[in-house]
Design goal:
The chain is mainly α. It has one domain. Helices cover 68% and strands 0% of the residues. It contains 7 helices and no strands. It starts with 9 loop residues before the first helix and ends with a helix.
């Protein structure tokens, strides 16, 4: 039987979420008002942060299964902020507290600073409708 290689590793997915998050932060920082697109981008940022957190948990489980406790703990310490920020921004969106967004976003910039963006590659279609989807989660 042939060996199966998973090309969609947690690291690759985490990198994609980080890139998307960095592009969204750049675009949001250029916005002068909170319009429908800004709301969609903010909601998509919540989904990116949740996705990053999921990949971190996946990596930690794999390392703990192999007995790499120190590596798993260090990795968790490096990425703890994703769950906290995802929850905080989600609460902001759910409450419609858009006035708090400009003070929340700068807390994310240091975490995305290592991502060098020369060209915006994410299509705005990627986050279109994300705000409505996130708001529907509150109802469920």
């Amino acid at each position: 039987m042939a060996r199966i290689i998973n090309t969609n590793s947690p690291g690759k997915r985490r990198s994609a979420y980080m890139r998307t998050g960095a592009e969204i932060l750049r675009r949001l920082s250029q916005k002068r008002e909170i319009d429908a697109e800004a709301k969609d981008m903010t909601a998509m940022l919540v989904y990116c942060l949740r996705g990053i957190d999921e990949t971190v948990e996946e990596s930690i489980r794999a390392w703990e299964k192999r007995g790499y406790w120190k590596k798993a703990d260090d990795f968790q310490q490096k990425w703890w902020w994703t769950e906290v920020q995802a929850r905080a921004i989600n609460d902001l969106v759910q409450a419609g507290n858009w006035e708090a967004l400009p003070e929340r976003l700068p807390r994310l910039f240091p975490h995305f600073a290592a991502i060098n963006i020369k060209k915006l590659t994410r299509d705005p279609k990627a986050w279109r409708g994300a705000h409505d989807k996130l708001m529907r989660e509150q109802v469920s």
